[in-house]
Amino acid sequence: DTEVTQTPKHLVMGMTNKKSLKCEQHMGHRAMYWYKQKAKKPPELMFVYSYEKLSINESVPSRFSPECPNSSLLNLHLHALQPEDSALYLCASTTGTGERANEKLFFGSGTQLSVL
Amino acid sequence: GDSVTQMEGPVTLSEEAFLTINCTYTATGYPSLFWYVQYPGEGLQLLLKATKADDKGSNKGFEATYRKETTSFHLEKGSVQVSDSAVYFCALSDYAGGYSTLTFGKGTMLLVSP
After folding, report:
1. What is the mean pLDDT of each run of 10 residues along chain B (114 residues)?
2. B102 → closest Cβ in A40, A105, A109
3. Which residues of B touch A108 (CB under 8 A)?
């Protein structure tokens, strides 16, 4: 299994809603990432978890709350979002084992989020 | 900080034409370099990578050579197909603490017509 699976594929939410994005991988990877991608732009790093610990938070607003319940799962909890948060949210993983030859990232297909 | 510069798109080609997408980078240390491809409505797929100077990455007819002297990693393909139409991102990795973070270029859209 060489996939990163993200659910849901599409999500529409209002500004007062609470929702969660889910990401799962069964490749034994120990580093997992959330990226945000606006239309026609490159992905921007939001968070990195290494060995289930938050290692990087790129000054992301607190209305985005990541969670890594175990080594295979990564969630992104959303609350009180703004319309400008509408974007494709991509999850990625990598081995995280310290071997540089394995540093390529595997990306999921993303969740297309629309905030109304 | 690290940065990646790609040629502006869209690049419009006819099928079987030769493709070059330019990519240059600025980085401290010795980053690994990557080309990722994104098809409409999908996530990013690794196309090829190179981890040190003079390495050539190749996959599906695409090639790129890590040129340290010119800080470049240009993507080439000898004969493009309609199915190659996608957005191509050049990226470099900053490796620390046992994991990588990627810095992406702005992306280049490739449109191939029959």
Report:
1. 90 97 91 93 91 93 96 97 96 78 93 96
2. A105
3. 43
